[in-house]
Amino acid sequence: MSILIDEHTRVIVQGITGRDGSFHAARMLDYGTNVVAGVTPGKGGLEISGVPVCNSVKEAVKQTSADCSIVFVPARFAADAVREAIAGGVRLIICITEGIPALDSLGLYYESRRHSVRLIGPNCPGVISPGKSKVGILPHSIHLPGTVGVVSRSGTLTYEIVQGLSLAGLGQSTCVGIGGDPVVGTGFVEILELFENDPGTSAVVMVGEIGGGEEEKAAEFIALKMTKKVVAYICGRTAPPEKTMGHAGAIISGGTGTVEAKTRALQNAGVTVVQRPDEVAQALTALQ
Amino acid sequence: MKLLEYQGRELFKRYGITVPRATTVNGADEAALAVDSLGGVGVIKAQVLAGSRGKAGGVRIVRGADEARAAARALFGMTIGDYSVEKLLVEELLDIEQESYLSLMLDRSIPGIGCVASASGGEEIERIAARTPSPVRKIALARGDGPDWDLCSSMLDETLGPAIAPKALPMAKGLHQLLFENDCLLAEINPLVRTRDGSVVAADAKVVVDDNGLWRHEKIRTLRNREEFSPDEMEARAAGLSFVAIKGTIGCVVNGAGLAMATMDTIKLFGGHPANFLDVGGSSNPDKILVALRILLRNMHIRVILINIFGGITRCDDIANGILMARRQLSITIPMVIRLVGTNDEAGRALLTNEGLKNSTDMIAAVREAVTLDKTAERRP
Questions:
Q1: Helices A188-196 and A214-225: crossing angle, nearest 10°?
Q2: I need a labelling partner for B25 at 20 to 30 A (CA). Which of B68, B154, B174, B295 fits?
Q3: pTM of this prediction?
Q4: Is B15 among the catalytic positions?
Q5: A246 CB within 8 Å of a chain B CB
Q6: pLDDT tens figures, B274-285
């Protein structure tokens, strides 16, 4: 089993005629993802890597019964693209685009919920259920099918940790990048809940970073609701305060959002918090 | 992007928020004239982004043109938080009865728009909030729907009292409109002053604009203050790199923000001192590596450079070409520890090996090696 996506997921790619969209559509097809259509307004009728291009999400959903959309549209147009997908009838939207204004993301957060559509991202590497489907930009060669759930605010740091897991023989049920922006469609808590309820997931790895209080909220949820073991790694211990560290959401502001505070909250909730990325696999092995 | 007080004030005025009479000046004689026009008494405030400006002596009350000129000269010679003062705001002297606080911000924990008020103001809100009992109140003003002005009104009544609240509510409404029309993350009035004649004015303005929204605000875009970023940070931004310098001796070049932070943390864990955060970003233009290394090599405290790449979108052969190009164009006399894995890593490592550059695939081993080299390296001349 897995969460969010599996071998039955039917995916449309918004922005498939762009540089990133066309490249990653091909990589997803390589992996076996059911990429059933692309969407670029005005380019309907084209074909990219054998995938038909439609003018709108509505048209693509009608023609292909797609249930998921991945958005590669440039930042200036991405919020509109996500809105189109919400109205277009998919159940899951994964927004890769970085640089969407935070107040737009706030609007998308509530609009997606009003329509009961799950939004992952923006500014995220996407989702992979190894061996079944990939809807994102994660390098799939490092993944191994298995039972560890991974949820992260980061991209390459997740790859680093996942590679460590795979090398240690710890395969993954699903890996979810929730995104590095201050406001994202889906937070740690909701993904942890999905993992808790997924019979195919035996333990969870959570990769957090400085800024905000999402890790603390996750700690509360873990203490109250989770039976599965969680191992966490939080980065940004050496980050100076009031400076944005690459991700728009990674900032220690007014003394809140530090690694120390997050670590304390998670440890109090019974989570094993490790100090280095390579210790995640060791800690998981020790727990099992 | 952070605005200076005089820039924030102009925005406030557009949204009907009362501010004191004031003039922005660039010279001491101008300051004297401005104080004259205010009736011979005024407050001269250094325009800097650094907090605790008052404590650093950046705010002076002056009487008469001579005092104004002298104070302005002194302020123009000052350095506050590493930056020399270049602009002053000459403001009317308010007859202060009470200093309170009001702000609206994007609050990620709601997520939504938060409104914070306090009957005490005039110093950093975190300090005020730390008092017991805390005089600071915060509400979730808006979630998915429109703002709840009834809730806001009763919160302001309770917090600020009947003398201020009725005048603070329209200010809060102005700040709300300001946030949404200008893609702002924070708009803060601290202090919100009540004068003895009963008027309520915004006696300072702090505004933070979302960098991701700047493309649709042509005028605000031009307000960027050089104080916000060092020359190195500006050069990095222009090249599409995220760069933050800290005190340390190991320079870092990494792809991805999370991995960049994890690299710094691991260096520290092994007893070393990272000199910077540097994320080369998703694409792998070799020029970016060149700019990154040029910036790091200018820092004479850096004794070792650690390059840590996990290729996803980034291609390791592009990174290797960037390193080789930098080696041809720059004089690199300090050791480089290079770790390359991910997309096209074999090609990338071969390129480096052929040119005699050692490289590896294990992050932890690479960090250890950088820390060891740093401890044995000589101080750069």
A1: 30
A2: B174
A3: 0.94
A4: no
A5: yes
A6: 999 999 987 668
